[in-house]
Amino acid sequence: MGLSENLLQQLGFGDYEARTYVALLQGGPATGYQVAKASGIPRPNIYEVLKKLEARGAVVSSEGTTGTRYMAVPSEVLLRDLEGGLSSVLDRAKRALQSPQGQAGRQYITQARGYLALIEKARIVVRTARSRLYVFSWRREASMLANDFSAAVERGVRIDTFCAEACSPACGNCCGSIYREYRLAPERGGRWLLMVADNKELFLGALGTGDNDLVVCTQQPLIVDIAARFLCQNMSIAALLSDLGKRLPEVASPGTVALNLAMLGAGEPGSGWLERLGQALDVYRMSASREEDAGPSGQLVEDPFHSLVSAQPAPGS
Fold first, then answer.
1. Which domains can be identified in the chain, with CATH numbers?
2. pTM higher than 0.90 for the full model?
3. HEC profile of 60-82
C-alpha cells in the first residue's frame, strides 16, 4: 500500500475505497472493469466500492457509448470537503462534551503511584494552567518543578506558593507570591505536593514513601473548592502572622493560646504553636532583612494578605 492510500485510510476511507480513488486519480476516467484491473480489487467488488465513493463525493460517474465511466474528484476538492466535514464534527463534539452530560467524567478521581509518575503528572498540571495556580510544596518538589513554575509565570499564570518547609534562606525554586512564615506540618510525617489549577483541577501528592508515593487528581468541583480554600486560608494565616509578629500572644485569646494547634507540634516540649510561631517569625525577620533586594523568585510579599485576596474571584467561582 502506498502513502496516499494509507493517508486516505486515516481519513476514514476503507482499503478498497482508498485504492480505487488513487487508481482513478492517477489513471483518469475509466470503466468499472478498468478500475478493477488498475487497483487490483476483485471485479465483483468494484461496483459496490465505486457506489460508496460516489456517495462520499470522491467519485463522479457519467454514461457514455461504452457504458458507465468513473472519474475521481480533484484531490484539492476532496480534501477541502473532508476538512469541512471533520471541522463540523469536531465542533459538534466539543459542544456535546462541554454539556452537563459531558462534564460527568470530571467527577471521577484518578490516581497513580511512584515518584516519577507523580512529578510527571505535576508538570502536566503546571504546564496546562491558564491563569491561576495555588501551590503547597516542600523544597525537593519545588526544585523538580522550578522550570515549569517559571515558564507558567512567563505566560501570565498567577502563582501563590505556600512553602511548607519555611525555607530560610529561600531556596529560590518557588515562584510568584511566596508565603513561608511558618512550617505547617512536621516533616517526619511525609511530604505533600498540593496544587489547585484555575480553581478547576486538584493535584494531591503524598510523598516520602518510595514506590508507594501516591498522586490523586480530580476535577470534582466540591473537592477542588475545599482544597483551594485550604490553601487560601493557610496563606492568609501566614500573611496575618507576618503582620502581627510577636504581638500574637498579646492579641490572641486565652482559648486560642490553650488550643496550641497540634498541626504545629503541640504537646511536644518546647514546640507549642505560639512558641513555634515565635521561632519562625524570628527566622523570617532575619531572612527578610537579608533578602531586601532579592528578585521575584526569592522575595517575600510586602503585603501578602492584601495581594492574595484583592481583585481575585473566590475559589470555585
1. 3-95 (1.10.10.10), 103-309 (3.30.870.10)
2. no
3. EEEEECCEEEEEECCHHHHHHHH
